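Researcher: I'd like a structural prediction for the single chain below. Treat it as a standalone chain; there are no partners to consider.
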Amino acid sequence: MSGQSERREEFAAFLRTRRERLQPADVGLQAGSRRRVAGLRREEVAQLAGVGLTWYTWLEQGRPIAASDQVLNAIARALRMSEDERDHLFALAGVAPPGRDERACVEPAHLDLLAKLMPYPAAVQTARFDIRAYNRSYRFLFDDFDAYPADERNCAVRIFTDPVWQRAHLDLDHAQHRIASRLRAAYGRHHDEPGWQQFVGRLERDSPVFADLWRRGDVGGEQSTRKNLLHPEFGPLHLEMTSLWIGESGASRVVWFSPVDEATERAVERLSRVAPGDPVVSTPSSAIPEPADGRRALGATA
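Model: Treating it as a single chain, here is the predicted structure.
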């Protein structure tokens, strides 16, 4: 059996197991009488997904037919799949999974970690450089990050379009090249996602520097690096930037900045004491799933 045939068989088996685990009441249907199958009937799934019964039956039989991402999404919703299950279904179908809401990767434990990393600046960042959460030291590392709208809290946007961030980088050319090459590497895994396409298009329109770097096609990997910054109040900051991917999906990472000399260490301590009455961690409330015990991270904003 070929690799494609094996994948179609696994795809078909996965659909059947997801269908058989559900009862009519789980999807708002009447159970009726004399049901001879475990779980839902095929015609019920087809109706819920808005696809033809013959088409859905062929999918469960492992026929060599191609399903669009719209059809796969509809079937995943009809079968009440989790995001992990939906992504597995897409992978078996040989289709790139849709982008997740990466804010869901920010857990209360991650917010606690940001608080415990104080006074070191630290943040939760997505592969697209969206900042989803950050501690007080990071908040004031360049400017007051809380002052930016939530959808503008993005390192790539800031370093290519924000004069404040650009002035803060003593090695701006190197920093811009590095972030563009890392974005290019991540884009290879998300190139067919509309959100990523729009994001890159926006940067190309708003920043000639980014447009030039993007055309070069350089690709860079994830690794620690030195950040040389000039803070308007605390002077030069020489930091080692390190990151650690979090979550099974690898959609986000914790990034933190360690001082590399005593002067920077003293400056970072002072940075952590700015606005001492404010929360230790900042993040949009929609980025934090409510834990089962109702506990929130220490000092997190709502």
